[in-house]
Design goal:
CATH superfamily of the largest domain: P-loop containing nucleotide triphosphate hydrolases
Helix content: 55-70%
Number of domains: 2
CATH topology of the largest domain: Rossmann fold
Mean pLDDT: 81
Radius of gyration: 43 Å
Number of helices: 12
Length: about 325
């Protein structure tokens, strides 16, 4: 009985501990868990999920008397307003009362981006007055922004992170809850890994895409994490393997390039040598040809060849022949 009571007590303690650590082991979070002055990021797989999440974020705020500012693409702005109307909200009245403001993200970027560089002063000139009007009568402010996502999509990663930083700086003097969002397919390669880490670092909360948050139980979320860990490990090994192959290819290409340069140098040296040899051979051959033609003409004319003259000619032919022999020996 004592053993049974001991086991029961300890099993109960473990159960309590397990219940307490469940959220930490496999958190399932969304914007509803955020505070009144948060800067959080939502990753998403589909536009439908994003529009539903932002629509709920904005409509909840409007019903609570908060002001809402949406800075998004035209398509998302229209879809969000459709969700608000479907939820029974009078969007026109909210706009007229200064409670709801919708801005085009691309046009907003034009106001403070100069030569692909972010100008913080221009950003503050645009958004500080907007925040001041939205927060009138002590209203809390909710913002959904897609400007950072557009910068990332355009490949301007430094401006993406810098804009996230400026939002954080602005939050030190103005109270608002900021909802950022990025499509998961924007981070589809190794080149985007650093951007993903930097973006997450600039947010107080990070919400995974719906493929994770929609999982209903702790066990399924833990399984999803394990699967992602396995994929990450496999990808790291795959990337390392590709880097090794690329390094071997680079070494082989350098060796081939060096061999080709040596061959080209050898061919140039051969051509130079043959050019010089041709010139050197031409001189003695000309002398030989001259003497033989002289002898031939005299013999055809029936002239006599003096022994001394014939000896000098033969000596010259022998000398030039020796010279040719030496040149040929050098080839």
């Amino acid at each position: 009985m004592i053993v049974d009571e001991y086991q029961h007590r300890n099993i109960s303690q473990f159960a309590v501990i397990e219940d307490n650590i469940e959220p930490a082991l496999a958190p399932r979070t969304d914007w509803t868990e955020m505070g009144a002055s948060e800067h959080f990021v939502q990753f998403y797989d589909t536009d439908t999920f994003l529009v539903d999440a932002v629509g709920a974020f904005v409509s909840s705020g409007l019903r609570a008397g908060d002001a809402a500012i949406v800075v998004a693409t035209q398509a998302h702005r229209e879809a969000i307003e459709e969700r608000l109307r479907a939820a029974g909200l009078d969007v026109a009245a909210a706009i007229a009362g200064g409670q709801y403001l919708s801005l085009d993200a691309a046009e907003a970027l034009l106001g403070f981006m100069v030569d692909n560089e972010l100008e913080p002063g221009r950003f503050l000139e645009i958004f500080e007055p907007i925040l001041a009007r939205a927060s009138e009568n002590n209203r809390r402010v909710r913002i959904f922004g897609e400007m950072v996502a557009l910068l990332a999509l355009d490949g301007n990663f430094s401006a993406t992170v810098r804009l996230e930083e400026i939002w954080n700086e602005l939050q030190k003097t103005h109270s608002f809850s900021l909802f950022c969002a990025y499509a998961m397919d924007q981070f589809d390669g190794q080149a985007h890994a650093e951007l993903l880490v930097n973006v997450c670092a600039e947010h107080s909360r990070v919400i995974p895409a719906e493929s994770y948050t929609a999982l209903p139980s702790q066990d399924e979320r833990l399984r999803a994490i394990l699967t992602l860990q396995q994929k990450a490990s496999w990808l790291e090994e795959e990337i390392a393997g590709r880097k090794r192959v690329e390094e071997r290819l680079r070494v082989a290409l350098e060796a081939e390039r060096a061999a080709r340069q040596e061959t080209e140098a050898a061919l140039r040296l051969r051509d130079e040598f043959l050019s010089i040899a041709a010139h050197e051979l031409r001189t003695p051959l000309t002398v030989l040809l001259g003497h033989t033609q002289l002898v031939e003409r005299k013999l055809r004319r029936g002239g006599d060849l003096q022994p001394e003259q014939l000896l000098r000619g033969m000596q010259s032919v022998s000398s030039q022949a020796d010279k040719i022999t030496r040149l040929l020996a050098q080839l």
